[in-house]
């Protein structure tokens, strides 16, 4: 498990990871995108 977390941290610090994080922040600020993400999470939670 520690290997996965270290890879995630390494990606988040990379330029590509920073761009991805910034895109996610912008998308989460949009109410339509936020509602879309909530619906997707609800579907994923319902399958378990």
Q: What would you note in describing this structure?
A:
90% of the residues lie in helices and 0% in strands. It is mainly α. The protein has one domain. Helix 1 packs across helix 2 (15-29). The longest helix is centred in the C-terminal third of the chain and has 16 residues, at 31-46. The two termini are 22 Å apart. Residues 1-48 are annotated as: Disordered. Residues 19-33 have a biased composition (Basic and acidic residues).
Strand content: under 5%
Q: By helix and strand content, what is the structural category? A: mainly alpha
Give the helix tally.
3
Shape: flat
Average pLDDT rating: 90
Q: How large, in whole angstroms, is the Cα Rg?
A: 14 Å
Biased composition (Basic and acidic residues): 19-33
Region (Disordered): 1-48
Short description:
Helix content is 90%, strand content 0%.
Keywords summarizing the entry:
mainly alpha; 48 residues; 90% helix
Write the layout of secondary structure elements.
Blueprint: H1 2-13, H2 15-29, H3 31-46
Helix pairs in contact: 1-2
Biased composition (Basic and acidic residues): 19-33
Region (Disordered): 1-48
């Amino acid at each position: 498990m520690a290997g996965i977390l270290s890879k995630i941290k390494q990606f988040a610090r990379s330029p590509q990871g920073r761009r991805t994080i910034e895109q996610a922040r912008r998308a989460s600020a949009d109410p339509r995108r936020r509602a879309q993400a909530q619906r997707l999470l609800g579907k994923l939670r319902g399958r378990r």
